[in-house]
Structures are given as structure tokens and as C-alpha cells.
Amino acid sequence: MFAFPLAFLWLAAAAPVLVLLYLVRQQTRVYRVPSILHLLALPEARLPVRRRLARFVADPLFYLQLLLLLLLVTALARPLREKIVRHAVFIMDVTASMQAREGERNRLSLAVEKARRFIERAGPDDRIAVLAAGRRVQVVTPFTSDRDVLRRGLSSLEATDTAGTCAEAAYTAANMLLSAGGGSMVLFTDSALAVPEGLIKEGLGIRIEGVGTERQNAGILSAIAPMGLLGTGGRVVAQIRNFSRDDLESEASLYVGDEECARTSLRIPPMRGQTVTLEAPGKSGLARLLLHAEDALAVDNQVHLWLPDSQPLALRIVSPSAALADFLGALGLFRLSRVLPQQFAPAEGETPEVTLLDGWVPSEPPAGNTIYLHPRSSGPLFRHRGTAPGEVYSWLEGHPILDQIGLDNLRFEELAMLDIATEAEVILSDRNWPLLAIAERDGERQVLCALPLVEMLQDPTAVLLLFRMLEWCSPRSRARDLEFPAGSPLTCPLPMPAQDVTLFPPRGASVTLQPAGSRIVWTDTQRSGPYRVVAPGLDRTYVATVSGPGESDLTHPAESVEVVQAGANGERAKIRTTASAWILWAVPILLVLEWLAFFWRKRRLDDAS
């Protein structure tokens, strides 16, 4: 059987050419004569005309060259041979709970040892693939029968700080086995709960090889520094759960840097949770909450979070009217200052955290975060085209400024018509003009709002939209933007074009990244902790948190049990392999033989002459 049998047409075309070359080539014959004196006595005569086609003479080199041509064409045709092999996919659980200690080793090392024993018992032709199942699925090794490759793939596995189930990995394995003709799946895990019932109902064959024993454990499920609308924070609220069957007596501490800022005592009943509140220091920055518990799993005993500034927001309003300053000042949420446009100086005094420009644009942009509210002239990120009536037509759902605000029925008699620079992102628009756009330059946030919100201070929607803009520009709002579950991609917008960006992960050396357009995307976030991004005009720290409360539950160890017969799709399958590589190995050997035969013949002729 051949994969490309039409390749033999080359043999049908090339073989006659080879024969023709042997017919038309110069036929040289050697005769031994005692003397040529009699030839000198003959009168001058014409030499006989040589025939165009000589008689074909059987030549060993011809058959050697014909064999060489046959081998080359056969290799092109790719001869196939079928054999019966077993296929298996090993799904290795690399979620956070696999870091739990079992004596001197963790659970993942025990699972790897079990998988190696499976490999040693496999047949020489059996093909095995290895998948790592964490928050996302990774193909560690594709189907191979090379035992060294499989061992190296298993040795490269590391338990992550992420949650996950085997569902996606099982479907990935099923698709791999489907293309291979069938086979079995083996899941190496510490929890039988990792197998959703839906997979069993679909008839997917999964054999569970369990590791680990029931262990005592407690963990921090979540920790936040809650903020009301422009609130001042000042505390950390954590959810801590006792997964053990005994009472938990411990302590929890809050650190900023290496300094312990707060500590509280805990007493949690078995299999119960508790909400803990700790007073946060009056400064913003990266904090760490630590649970002082000696248990099986250490990764869930600490979390990182970003503390907002507990001081009121420093807000400067530049407006010809006192209406906005009077409205916001009555709330008592700000360190408020009001400046008339003719008195405005960008570098005068202390730079506020947010500057709100109401209906007026300075010739020199202010430092810090800025909100341009219903501008009447052009600015650094926009060009003013006049005013026109309009209504809200489209918006970017899910953006923090617009989240859960009813915008469908907003209509306006006068909107500022703005041409927005390409570096700004439009999140709210009319049919013809942008109504709300945001930008970030050199680490400073800017909002361009074409809506006359000051004239709508009695409308709850307008007030909420104004507060959301202030909150988005507030330094304390960065805490929401900087936290993400470990294992999720980290996306960081850049304030300006950059050639190189440096990333400092929680563990290991720093990494130099090439930006993709105006942002960087980093997917290798399998560890919880701070990821610091440094670029021109940018120094920002993102916080990856341990994802999934179920990761802390070590009370349901798996057992070695077949959930469904492993060979639901057939344990054996036919595979086709090609022998072209072996044929091509013979080609240089034949070439060497042909050259040796040629030189041997030439030497005989030289000796005969």
C-alpha cells in the first residue's frame, strides 16, 4: 500500500530515458593486437560513420542505476504498513491542591511516579500522550512511543496556583483519541470530584488513578479591600474556611511590605467558614494577608491584594460656575478646591489627584488625571467641532464607568462634537460623534465627556456617570483593575509606544517582552502573587490571586477506580507508518557502490591499455 501511488509515473518516465542514455553513449571496445605496422601501410581511408543507436550491452552499472531510480521513486510513493497499537492519554492534574504534602513529597510527584509505572508496563509500540490539566489545558507531549520523551514531559510538570476541572482536558483527550482511532484516558488526580458527571453520562472512558490521603487544611478563600462609591476604604475583609474535621485555632496577619500592620485570632468550627476584618493602614500599596496555619497546603494560606488610599480624593474643579463644586462639596467625600478658569495655573501648588475641567480647556494640559467635561474648545486628545443635539446610540458593555447604568433613553439638546485621537478608546457614542472616551498617557488617566452633565445634576443617571468617571480616575480604583485569577491572561495597556517592556513575575527572573500594538499580553500566570510591569511612563503591579475555593478541600481523596470502562472508544487501533525513511537510507549506500564500481572499471581499462 502506498500513500502516493501516482509517484510511480516518474519511474515509467525516467526508466526509458536511462535506457536511451545507454544506447546513445560512446561504445568503447579494447582489442589486443601484436602490432599496428600493417595499419600504417594501408591507404588513407574514411573512418566508418558510427551508428546513432548502439547495441544495448548488459552493464552492471545500468542495473545499479535502475535500482537507485526505483528506490527514489518508491520513497516518493511513501509505502505504508499497518500495525495494531494501543493509544492512551494521561491527564495530569496540576491544580493547586496537587501541591499538598504527603510526607516528604507532594501529590504531583506521586502522580508522576504512578504515570511512569504505567509507561514501563506499556508495550513497545503503544503510543501515549500527556496533558496538563490546570486552569487551562496544555499538551505536554503528543502521541509518542518514545519512553524518554514521555519521562522528560512528566518531569517538566509543576503544580500551579490555579483551580480547574478535568472537563476541558477530557474533551481534548477524547478528540485526540478520536483522530487516532480510539484508546483510553487515565486521570491522575487527588480528587474524584474532578470528574463531572456529565462526562460519565456521555460515555467517555476515564480511569482515575488517585493519589493522596485525607489531610487537615484551612485556606483563605478571598480577601478584598472594599470601597463604596468613592469611599475611603480602611479595612480588609477576608473569607477563611476550615476544611478539616477538627476546630481550627489560628491567627491571620496583614502585611504591607515586610511590616505587620494588623493581626487577629481565629477559631473556626469544622467544615465551616468565617469572615475576618482587619484594619488597613492609611496608605495604598501591595499588601499580603497570611494565615498562620500548619496544614497540608501552604499556597492557600496567603493572598496578595492592593490597598486603596484611605485619604479622601483630592479633587480640583476648574469651572466658571459654582454649581458643580457646591454639589460635590456637600457630599463631604473629597478634599475639594475650586478654581476659576482665569486663575488656573497647571503647575501651581500641590498637584491634585484629579482635575475636573467643566466646559473649559486650558492652553496647557494639567498634570495628573483629568476629566474634560463638555469641552468648548480643542484639547491635547481631541478636536472640538461645535455642538449638536443627539442621543446615546452604542456603548461598551462591562466597562467600569458604564457597568449597570441605564443609558438607553438619554437624549440631549446640546452635545460637544469631538474628533478623538486614535490613542483614546471610545466607550459611549452617538450615531455620529463619540460621547465618552478614555485614554491613559504616561500613567495618567484622562476622560473626554461630550455630555453636559452639570446641567443634569438632578438626574440620577448623570450623577452616577459623573461619580464613575471620578472613581475611574481615582488612584484607588486601580485596585479593581490590577487583580485577576492566577492562570488568566494578564493584559496591560501601554501609555505610549514602547520597544521593550520588562515583566517581574512572582518567582524567577525578569522577562523582556515585545509589545503587541499598544498593549502586552502575558499568559504564563500560573503562580499567584505580584506581576510588575515596567515600561516608559508605566510602572504597574498586577496581583494574581489563588483561584477557586474548592482547591483547598483535601477531604475527598481519589481512589484507583474505573469510572467507565476505559476502552469505550476501543483500546486498540490500526496505525499506518511509512518506510520512506528507511528506503532513503539505502540511496547513499547505492551511490557509493556505483562510484566504487566506476573507478574499478576505469582502473581495469587503464591497466589493459
Walk me through what this model shows:
With 609 residues, the protein is an alpha+beta fold. Helices cover 22% and strands 33% of the residues. The strands form 8 sheets. An 8-stranded mixed beta sheet has the order 16-15-17-18-24-23-22-20, covered by helices on one side. Strand 4 and strand 5 (137-144) form a beta hairpin. Helix 1 (8-24) packs antiparallel against helix 3, helix 3 packs antiparallel against helix 11 and helix 4 (107-121) runs antiparallel to helix 5 (147-155). Mean pLDDT is 80; it is low at 562-570.
Secondary-structure class: alpha+beta
* Major β-sheet strand ordering: 16-15-17-18-24-23-22-20
Distance between the termini: 51 Å
| Proportion of helical residues | 10-25%
Task: Please provide the count of β strands.
Answer: 33
Q: How many helices?
A: 11
Main β-sheet description = 8 strands, mixed
Low-confidence stretches: 562-570
Overall residue-averaged pLDDT value: 80
Radius of gyration: 39 Å
Shape annotation: extended
The fraction of residues in strands falls at 25-35%
Describe the protein's topology.
Blueprint: H1 8-24, H2 37-40, H3 60-77, E1 80-93, E2 101-102, E3 105-106, H4 107-121, E4 127-133, E5 137-144, H5 147-155, H6 167-180, E6 184-189, H7 197-201, E7 206-210, E8 218-224, E9 235-242, E10 248-256, E11 259-268, E12 273-279, E13 285-291, E14 302-307, E15 313-318, H8 323-329, E16 334-339, E17 354-358, E18 369-373, E19 382-391, E20 394-395, E21 411-420, E22 425-429, E23 434-441, E24 444-449, H9 460-473, H10 478-482, E25 483-485, E26 490-493, E27 501-504, E28 511-513, E29 519-522, E30 529-535, E31 538-545, E32 561-562, E33 572-578, H11 580-608
Parallel strand pairs: 1-4, 1-6, 6-7, 15-16, 15-17, 17-18, 18-24, 25-31
Antiparallel strand pairs: 1-33, 2-3, 4-5, 7-32, 8-9, 9-12, 10-11, 10-13, 13-14, 19-21, 20-22, 22-23, 23-24, 26-29, 27-28, 27-30, 30-31
